[in-house]
């Protein structure tokens, strides 16, 4: 086997750009996904059947189809209806929509893990359902949700590599670019694999530290 | 003050309440006793609509509460409820547990709510626990805090759903004492309990519920010393 990393250092900037893009894309997507996911979760838990059906259907469809297919539909399918977005926007839309499906389930289970007695106590004190949600249930649910949301971020950090297929200049795409100019297929991939690994390692360490603090600050 | 007319409640195919009627006057203490699964807690939970009646009417101060037009949040403000498992808010200190509803629901000034809360903490003997979280409290203290929380809304009637059933025996008394004091002050109360001593001593009236119907009703003296129905007698023979 013949591995030669000597031509790689001159492309450091490309890899750095890729890292920044990947982290940016992941952060934005998970953030938007969290907001959308909250909406979907609330829809799913709604007592209005139609709304809860739409929420459930959304989650099922997103989780039941491959992310790659979802991206291709948004990138190639929508322009046929005259809706065209630049690659960056498509990447964000696709990943946020995908993330929303998973986050919705995280939020729903986080909320439902709160003792039903909490809702009953709040209602018995005269709070409306939404008041009880806002002041009692959600603050408690956040403790269940945050760690899982951090996990979703780490998963998305890796999954986001798929946007390279539509030309989004993330870390994976940079490896392809480097390999096309250096004619070396293997080395750039090894480099980005190492980078992905280090990033997820660092973030999951940070996450477990944060989780530990969350628990020690837990005065229950 | 509270009137329940021919109350029915089904959970799926299971008929839990099969026509319960009762009335509670202002200042009266009604104790509901009966075997577990008889439906006594369900009666209580219907009175503040934590369970929706399948059939029948419930009136509080003349207003029909299981009516589409009734403002349930308004009605619940007048009806305090104490639960078997306390249901305190674990992420809030004792005083915040008490002030949350007055501040958010009644739009009371935070400072005024705190003044009321401190008085209530004193009343239930927890003035030194104002900044403690529920996890730091014993079972008896938790339940006393839960009573204070319910009282902060200045309800006209208090519902107690087996308030001492989840407590260690040595803590039962401190909770019952708070309830006794409340009764002496003239609070209207409906209490579901297995504490027969409390029923004898504090109740104005006792009803015995079995299998979704009221089997026996009367003063504690009548019910405990001279039960007419064989089912009541059987129940007492098992527990006394």
Q: Flag low-confidence runs of chain B.
A: none
Roughly what percent helix of chain B? Answer: 25-40%
Spatial ordering of strands, largest sheet of chain B: 6-7-8-3-9-10
- The pLDDT mean of chain A sits at 90
Structure in words:
The complex is a heterodimer of chains A (220) and B (240). By secondary structure, chain A is mostly helical. Chain A has a single domain, classed as MetI-like fold (Orthogonal Bundle). Chain A is 77% helix and 0% strand. Chain A is built from eight helices and no strands. Chain A has helices spanning 12-44, 49-64, 67-77, 87-112, 116-124, 129-159, 171-182, 186-216. The longest helix of chain A is centred in the N-terminal third of the chain and has 33 residues, at 12-44. Chain A is flat. The termini of chain A are far apart. By secondary structure, chain B is of the alpha/beta class. In chain B, the strands form two sheets. Chain B has a six-stranded mixed β-sheet, with helices on both faces. Chain B has a four-stranded antiparallel β-sheet with strand order 2-1-4-5, with helices on one face. Chain B has helices at residues 40-47, 72-78, 94-104, 110-123, 139-151, 169-184, 196-202, 220-225, 230-239, and strands spanning 2-11, 14-24, 29-33, 55-60, 63-64, 79-82, 157-161, 188-192, 205-210, 213-218. Chain B contains nine helices and ten strands. Chain B starts with a strand and ends with a helix. In chain B, helix 4 crosses helix 5 (139-151). The radius of gyration of chain B is 18 Å and the shape is globular. Chains A and B meet through helix 5 and helix 6 of A and helix 2, strand 6, helix 3 and helix 5 of B.
Which structural traits does this protein have?
heterodimer; A: 220 residues; mainly alpha; MetI-like fold; 8 helices; flat; B: 240 residues; alpha/beta; four-stranded antiparallel β-sheet; 38% helix
């Amino acid at each position: 086997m013949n591995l030669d990393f000597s031509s790689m250092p001159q492309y450091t900037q490309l890899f750095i750009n890729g890292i920044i893009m990947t982290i940016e894309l992941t952060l934005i997507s998970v953030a938007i996904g969290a907001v959308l996911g909250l909406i979907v979760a609330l829809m799913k838990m709604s007592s209005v059947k139609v709304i809860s059906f739409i929420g459930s259907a959304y989650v099922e469809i997103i989780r039941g189809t491959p992310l790659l297919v979802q991206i291709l539909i948004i990138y190639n399918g929508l322009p046929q209806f005259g809706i065209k977005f630049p690659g960056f926007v498509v990447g964000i839309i696709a990943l946020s929509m995908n993330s929303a499906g998973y986050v919705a389930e995280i939020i729903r289970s986080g909320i439902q893990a709160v003792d039903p007695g909490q809702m009953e106590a709040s209602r018995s004190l005269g709070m409306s359902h939404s008041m009880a949600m806002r002041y009692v249930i959600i603050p408690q649910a956040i403790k269940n949700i945050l760690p899982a949301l951090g996990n979703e971020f780490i998963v998305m950090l890796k999954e986001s590599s798929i946007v390279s297929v539509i030309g989004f200049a993330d870390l994976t795409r940079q490896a392809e670019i480097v390999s096309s100019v250096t004619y070396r297929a293997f080395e750039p991939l090894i480099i980005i694999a190492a980078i992905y690994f280090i990033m997820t390692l660092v973030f999951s360490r940070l996450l477990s530290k944060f989780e530990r603090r969350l628990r020690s600050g837990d005065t229950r | 003050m509270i009137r329940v007319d021919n109350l029915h409640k089904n959970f799926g195919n299971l008929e839990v309440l099969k026509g319960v009627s009762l009335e509670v006057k202002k200042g009266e203490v009604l104790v509901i006793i009966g075997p577990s699964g008889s439906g006594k807690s369900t009666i209580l939970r219907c009175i503040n609509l934590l369970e929706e009646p399948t059939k029948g009417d419930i009136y509080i101060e003349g207003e029909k509460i299981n009516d589409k037009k009734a403002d349930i949040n308004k009605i619940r403000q007048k009806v305090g409820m104490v639960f078997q498992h306390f249901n305190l808010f674990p992420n809030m200190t004792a005083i915040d547990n008490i002030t949350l509803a007055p501040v958010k629901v009644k739009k009371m000034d935070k400072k005024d709510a705190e003044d009321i809360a401190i008085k209530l903490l004193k009343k239930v003997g927890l003035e030194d626990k104002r900044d403690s979280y529920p996890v730091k409290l014993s079972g008896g203290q938790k339940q006393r805090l839960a009573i204070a929380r319910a009282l902060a809304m200045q309800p006209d009637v208090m519902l107690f759903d087996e308030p001492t059933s989840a407590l260690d025996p040595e803590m039962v008394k401190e909770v019952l004492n708070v309830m006794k004091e409340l009764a002496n002050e003239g609070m209207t109360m409906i209490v579901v309990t297995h504490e027969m001593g409390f029923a004898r001593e504090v109740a104005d009236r006792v009803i015995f519920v079995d299998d979704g119907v009221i089997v026996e009703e009367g003063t504690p003296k009548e019910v405990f010393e001279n039960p007419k129905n064989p089912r009541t007698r059987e129940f007492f023979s098992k527990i006394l």
